[in-house]
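Take a careful look at the sequence and tokenised backbone pasted below. I need to know what the token row says about the fold.
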Amino acid sequence: MPSVSTDLLLFGGRALILLLGFAALVVCFMRWEKAARQQTQDAAARLEVALGEIRSLREVGEGTNAALQALTEQVQTQLRLAKAASAPSATGYDVAIRLARNGASTDEVVSTSGVTRQEAVLLARLHGPDTARHRMTA
């Protein structure tokens, strides 16, 4: 039987250990890559859910904004009417003039003060907010 030198056995053992180590390293990297891919997919799914929630919140906010603007306009109209109607012992023309100065519409002036539509249009031309601006610049 041929004898194998000790150096050759040690070299073969080292080579075998290096190959086993390399194989273990490859297996570890493959598992690490698979775990990283799974984590990326999970993060993408969570991100998509978060974006959907953000979109729904934006839609709710837009609806709330529209409702708030409508309520603000109603309150402003009511305040103008209340301000005009709260004057003590005002005649219909006084109320109509006050409404016109506060920017009330022709219909509001007619329904609140009892003047005719033509009179309300005339009062809006004479006493409306746009007229006051023209007087200041003239």
Observations:
- Helices lie at 6-85, 92-101, 106-113, 117-127, 129-137.
- The CA atoms of residues 81 and 108 lie 8 Å apart.
- The first helix runs from residue 6 to 85.
- The two ends are 125 Å apart (CA to CA).
